[in-house]
Amino acid sequence: MKRLHLLPLLFVSVFSSSAFAGWKCNASTTAGYPNECSRAGVQDTPDALISSFVSAVTALNTNVNRKDYKAGACTMNGSQNAICAYSWTSFGTVMNNSIGALKEAVVCPDTVEVRGPDSPIIKSGGKNYVSWKEDSVVNDICHNSCSYMASSVNRSNCYLASGSTSTGFCNFFVGINSASPTCAAESGYTSPAVGDPLDPIVDPGDGGDDGTDPNPGDGGNPGDGNNGGDGDSGFDGELSFTNPGSLNADSVLDSEVNAVHYQAFVHGMQVDLNHSGFGVAMEEFQQKISAANSGGTCPTADIAILGTIISFDAHCALFAGISPILSAVFLAAWSLLALRVFLSA
Questions:
Q1: Structural domain spans, the chain
Q2: What is the pTM of this model?
Q3: List of residues 6+ apart from 207 with CB closer than 8 A
Q4: Taking 50 as the threshold, does the pLDDT of residue 10 lie above it?
């Protein structure tokens, strides 16, 4: 649960950074020095910006004749613009240049989370409550140049102060003052925090981890060495299970409607197979087998022995009897072989 409590803090920290109004290169300087301005980033003051910009120029410098880059002074041009000088030496001569600095506009999040003051703990009904009320926030809050209304306060999470059982605090949210969203001086803001849970959950089956002896009767059979024995656990040594009975899958088809759908499904599968490339190939193969059987004749032999003609045709009668079985066996074998080749492709 503590991880869940950290989510509001993460949410606020991400969006609070967007409220930072710092100094960066103006459009013309960025166009001329895109890489240097990107490295310089956004800084708290114009002086910090020119210092960061000079560090970037030094790192990206490819002209071995330019040396000793140094940041100079910044001159304000109104409240949102500044000109910052810097210099370097080339063949022993000092060269001067400058950049334009711009203070970016403030972007305020809709809400911000704030830590409330420490307050006494009230115990009621076996639970702890922080004696703090939302209406105790009477002054607007200024944070990161953004103004938030005291009248919009909404309680977030409450905790015990770390290590205490008599003092706690609550975090709360306040909404942006849309009529006048910016302010000058930081006031009324304290970063939200996480303390100890108001009502810690105690595991009743911890076996006396607090140093006390557990209930000797909660460990099941205390002497057989298998079912608890030492009373450390709430497990009684046996598991109870009731068989729910067998599942009759055939009952799914008992419904007339379901049976119709089942037949339609099977018929559809058969039609799809017959019209597939594999099904057509199998049909042609079977037709060729049948044509081969009908077009051939069984060879016989007639031999004259002592004036008597003896015909050897018993094998034809035997083959006629077993040919359907052989056809089915070889059809199945070739079908399986064809299916294996088809699936392996």
A1: 1-11+108-199, 22-103, 256-344
A2: 0.38
A3: 214, 231, 232, 233
A4: no
